[in-house]
Design brief:
Blueprint: H1 2-11, H2 15-33, H3 36-49, H4 53-57, H5 67-78, H6 82-110
Helix pairs in contact: 1-2, 1-5, 2-3, 5-6
């Protein structure tokens, strides 16, 4: 499932759908991790983030669309390299966080 999700990320062109697929990718990562704590945190995040996707996708596309970085994470998970997976996940989440915050700032300045 993780590889299928990754394949979709590599070909999806629509910015909003791409972000939905990225959430699906993270769903699969969390399913594999088996952590109820991570699942609860992600579900809360997703509940807040998903309704804003159409608005956010208009101001952040290239900043968050990084299929190669998702591939790095999937590869590290596949071979059981927890250090590389942790590093790749951190980099993806940090990049996405910065992009979301910049997009929100941009939207706020337009108000």
């Amino acid at each position: 499932m993780l590889q299928d999700s990754l394949s979709t990320l590599e070909i999806e062109d629509d910015p909003t759908e791409w972000q939905r697929q990225a959430l699906t990718f993270w769903d699969h990562v969390l399913d594999g991790a088996g952590s109820i704590v991570f699942r609860l945190m992600f579900n809360a995040f997703r509940g807040a983030y998903e309704p804003a996707l159409p608005m956010l996708s208009t101001v952040m596309t290239s900043e968050i669309r990084r299929p190669g970085d998702y591939r790095k994470l999937a590869d590290a998970i596949s071979v059981g390299d927890s250090a590389a997976a942790k590093k790749a996940a951190y980099e993806l989440i940090e990049c996405a966080n910065e992009a979301v915050m910049a997009a929100l700032d941009k939207l706020e300045s337009k108000r």
